[in-house]
Each structure stands twice: as structure tokens, then as C-alpha cells.
From TrEMBL:
InterPro entries: FTHF_cligase-like_sf, LUD_dom, NagB/RpiA_transferase-like. This is LUD domain-containing protein. Residues 107-212 form the LUD domain. The lineage of its organism: Bacteria, Bacillati, Actinomycetota, Actinomycetes, Kitasatosporales. Gene3D superfamilies: NagB/RpiA/CoA transferase-like. Pfam families: LUD_dom (PF02589).
């Protein structure tokens, strides 16, 4: 018997005495909580996102759609990146001006290979203003979770205002629960017992978020 079968067996035994006409889970839990704290305009919501991202020590940039290729090229150049990891489905125009060698995301690539990549550029699924959180769900232009955890430099592009929401409940309503999601609030960081902050332990040491407007 596999671990999966054992777990499902325990679930079935735990539910054995539940009446067939019991209230469905979706209706049993009251969800009348606030879906947004206060009223904000679209611009105020984007400003809140930018401020909270900066509080988490992410580097925030803003540009119009036409400026995005040159901005990304400048960020990679300033970083001294010679290679950039490109997930499937990423808009190739974003890297049109970049001099760094493009490295495709290969399923067989091991962590050591990914660690040799200087930077990774991705899109996102949604960005949450109230928490300063970027959510990836493995969709086009985002790639697998590990490509945003191993390389030391992550550039994430957020389309504003389309991909920006105020709150976590609003973000959840946009996400497919069947897809794997990664929630990122700033660069990876932890603190030891003396509260000395160390960055880059569980993910990229440097995270840059580009808020791009227009199409």
C-alpha cells in the first residue's frame, strides 16, 4: 500500500460517520469577511503594492510597455548578468535588448545548473497590494517553481493594473487551486537568534519587480 492510499484511507474513515445530507464544505464555512480594507483608486492600489514591495526590500521599477525591453536590459547589465533563464511562454520581446545569453528552462536541469545562471526573468499570475506579495502559478512566462528559487537574481514583470489586486481574498478568486502556486514577499530572507538578517537563504538574494503599464 502506498503512502497516498494510506492517507486517503484515513480520510475515508474519518468521514465515514458524516451524514450524506450534511452541509457541503463550501457552504459550511461563513465567508462574509472583508475582501478589501478600505476603498482605494486603481492608482492608489498600485502605489500601495509598490510601497509594500519596497518595505520587503524588493527593488521596484515602473515603466511603460514600450520601455520594458530597455529597462530589463539595463537591469541585467547593471547586475553583470551574462546568462538569463527564460521560462516557456515568456514574451521574447521583453529580452529583445538584453545582451545576456538566454538559457531555456529544461526539465532535466539540476540545481547546480540552475545555480550557475546569473538571473531569471518571469511574468506573474497576480500581485497583492495589501501584503506586497507576488504570486506565481507556473503559467506561461512563469515556469517551474525552482527556477525562481535557485538563481540569485529574479526580475518579475507585473502588468498594471490588470494583474494587481488589493487583498488576498481577491487574489485567491483569480487563482486555480489545482495549480501549484508560489507566494513571494520580497527577496528570500531569514534571521538568526540575534535577529541578524541574512538574505538569499531560501531563494534569490535580489528581487526586482517591474510594474509595467500599457500593452
Amino acid at each position: 500500500m502506498s503512502s497516498r492510499e494510506r492517507i486517503l484511507g484515513r480520510v475515508r474513515r474519518a468521514l465515514a460517520d458524516v451524514p450524506g445530507d450534511d452541509t457541503p464544505y463550501e457552504e459550511a464555512v461563513v465567508r462574509d469577511y472583508l475582501r478589501e480594507h478600505g476603498g482605494r483608486t486603481v492608482d492608489e492600489t498600485v502605489d500601495l503594492l509598490a510601497g509594500n514591495l519596497a518595505d520587503y526590500r524588493a527593488l521596484v521599477h515602473r515603466c511603460a510597455a514600450g520601455e520594458l525591453p530597455s529597462l530589463i536590459a539595463g537591469l541585467l547589465s547593471a547586475r553583470g548578468a551574462r546568462t538569463v533563464l527564460v521560462p516557456p511562454g515568456l514574451d521574447q520581446g521583453w529580452l529583445a535588448a538584453a545582451a545576456a545569453e538566454r538559457v531555456p528552462d529544461r526539465p532535466e536541469a539540476d540545481p547546480h545548473e540552475l545555480d550557475r545562471v546569473d538571473s531569471v526573468v518571469t511574468a506573474c499570475a497576480v500581485a497583492i497590494a495589501e501584503t506586497g506579495t507576488i504570486v506565481l502559478d507556473g503559467g506561461p512566462g512563469q515556469g517551474r517553481r525552482r527556477i525562481t528559487l535557485v538563481p540569485d537574481h529574479h526580475i518579475c514583470v507585473v502588468r498594471v493594473p490588470d494583474q494587481v489586486v488589493s487583498s488576498v481574498p481577491q487574489a485567491l478568486s483569480r487563482l486555480d487551486p489545482a495549480r501549484p502556486s508560489t507566494w513571494i514577499s520580497g527577496p528570500s530572507a531569514t534571521s538568526d537568534i540575534e535577529l541578524d538578517r541574512v538574505e538569499g537563504v531560501h531563494g534569490p538574494r535580489t528581487m526586482e519587480v517591474v510594474l509595467v503599464s500599457g500593452r
